[in-house]
Amino acid sequence: MRADSTTTFRSLYPPIEPYISERIPVSDGHEVHVEQSGNPHGIPILFVHGGPGGGTSPIQRRFFNPAKFRIILFDQRGCGRSRPHASLENNTTWDLVADMEAIREHLRIKSWVLFGGSWGSTLSLIYAQKHPERVRSIILRGIFLSRKEELDWFYQNGTRSLFPEAWTRFAELVPEGERDDLIKAYHRRLTEPEFERERLLFAKEWSLWEGSTVTLVPDEEQRAHSVDPVFALAFARIEAHYFLHQCFLECDDQILRDAHILKDIPIIIVQGRYDAICPPKSAYDLAKAMPWASLKIVPVAGHSAFEPAIQHELICATDAI
Q: Are residues 192 and 237 in the same domain?
């Protein structure tokens, strides 16, 4: 398949195994899983996964040239191989920023490249605004700025028009009187003791809603992964926890307000034109606030990093570092 009239889509690098995997104690009883692969003496690049609560997978190592990069993946608090699993205690955006710094110090890295998509774009931007001197460059995909309008788009009044059948299933699990705030309604069922016996059901439905909307072309493998019990429980509980609290930011436009802090950092933004989860307006708004950044809107793509044209642009961006 062709990316344009002269080039073909880039494919992922071959599978690789980590040369070290460990669980690093951070704060408040949490331990975060960290792995390194590629070149131990290469350019440090941190993969910042989505969700929140999504965790990492081996395929994510393959965006990066293993001869060029020291590839670092970590599972954020409460998800993936981090422990305790699905924990919401002391689990906020600012805890995750502190964890990233703890990882950097543990690995004795002076500064690194950040590579984040969806919620990973949010966390990368917030970390960089907090620690700009620690960031060499940033590659972002599927921009999410943690604004109320974005949460309303996906959980109330936007994406439902594109995926009405998936939306009906997601919304109708909640009593009609609570459907005006589905984040709050699901959060109750994912966290309160009275719903403990039903918790996994609601976790799977929360996760399936996102899994049904993440790609431009329906992906049954993605849908099946989204209802895996271990994945869904952490993903749904942590996302609902963060989104109910608007990701613990100081104000709705904090990331745009503080964009000027990043003026000396090269930034590439890759955005699918038909992203139903994080629509292009957010990427456009971010690029307007950061005129030094490069914005690439991919014409035929949705939200997933593994859409062929998105994948191509991300690999090209890392190769260009």
A: yes
